Amino acid sequence: MKIFSWNINGIRAAINKGDFAKFIAKYQPDILCLQETKAKKGQADIDLPDYEEYWNDADRAGYSGTAIFTKLKPLEVRFGFSDAINKKYNFADNFGDAAREGRVTTIEFEDFYLVTQYTPNAKRELERLEFRAGVWDPAFLEYVKELKKTKPVIFCGDLNVAHREIDLARPKDNVGNAGFTDEERKGFQNYLRAGFVDTFRALHGDEAGAYTWWTWRANARARNIGWRIDYFLATKDIAPRITEASIYPTQAGSDHCPISIDFS
């Protein structure tokens, strides 16, 4: 089974440019997890008869959103967090209500959960860092720990953090910047402490130059001046079934590229 994750940064634009159709035709994913769809179901002209489609739209038009397209019918689909987590945390701040931005979608199969998430950005001046580190990251960790009490979990998506210096091209220049603050990196480390495995690093070690996002500026993508901020993480009990983790930097259509895992 091939599972893909892609922050598509506006699915309608990727469709209109032809990049989405080319991607599907070339890779034919068994499951495709999307972040930052920026569209509601029905707004995008998609003809994928082999797939079940599950869209989690933001209340705000043209913003955020996640979706999962799957050839395998899940047992259950969940949008957002559990009721207990929604009651425990206040997801509203000056930038909006993250619980109403379609950021988390979960599908359940017989032997595992698959979760995709689009983590809120800390913002250029770190205006949302306190929310990101103090609310979102703990809430999401609590959610996936809650799921793994029942069965193994794989989660993926744009986590908006480079975990280690090797995960971005210019770490010294970016210390303390959004996506590479101590708080965000600690949030990622907490996933590992909780028993989740960074599947790419588990399979590729300290491979350098493996990035998933590039700024549009200064020809950064062609020069591979990028960041690895898109991930697949898995609980230790299911990680051995992941035999490959791949990055596709040449795939056009977004400022992020797709990533995938081969799952037996």
Describe this structure in words.
With 264 residues, the chain is an alpha+beta fold. The protein has a single domain (2-263), classed as Endonuclease/exonuclease/phosphatase (Deoxyribonuclease I, Chain A). Helices cover 25% and strands 25% of the residues. The chain is built from eight helices and 14 strands. The protein has helices at residues 11-16, 19-27, 83-88, 129-148, 171-174, 182-193, 199-204, 220-223, and strands at residues 2-7, 31-35, 52-56, 66-70, 76-79, 92-93, 96-97, 104-108, 113-118, 153-158, 196-198, 230-235, 242-247, 259-263. Strands 3-4-2-1-14-13 form a six-stranded mixed beta sheet. Helix 4 (129-148) runs parallel beside helix 6 (182-193). The chain is globular, with a radius of gyration of 17 Å. The termini are close together.
- Overall pLDDT metric: 97
Gap from first CA to last CA? 6 Å
Cα gyration radius (Å): 17 Å
Q: Write out the CATH superfamily name.
A: Endonuclease/exonuclease/phosphatase
Helix fraction by DSSP (H/I, runs of at least 4): 25-40%
Mind describing the biggest β-sheet?
Answer: 6 strands, mixed
Name the poorly predicted regions: none
Give the topology.
Layout: E1 2-7, H1 11-16, H2 19-27, E2 31-35, E3 52-56, E4 66-70, E5 76-79, H3 83-88, E6 92-93, E7 96-97, E8 104-108, E9 113-118, H4 129-148, E10 153-158, H5 171-174, H6 182-193, E11 196-198, H7 199-204, H8 220-223, E12 230-235, E13 242-247, E14 259-263
Parallel strand pairs: 1-2, 9-10
Antiparallel strand pairs: 1-14, 2-4, 3-4, 5-8, 6-7, 8-9, 10-12, 11-12, 13-14
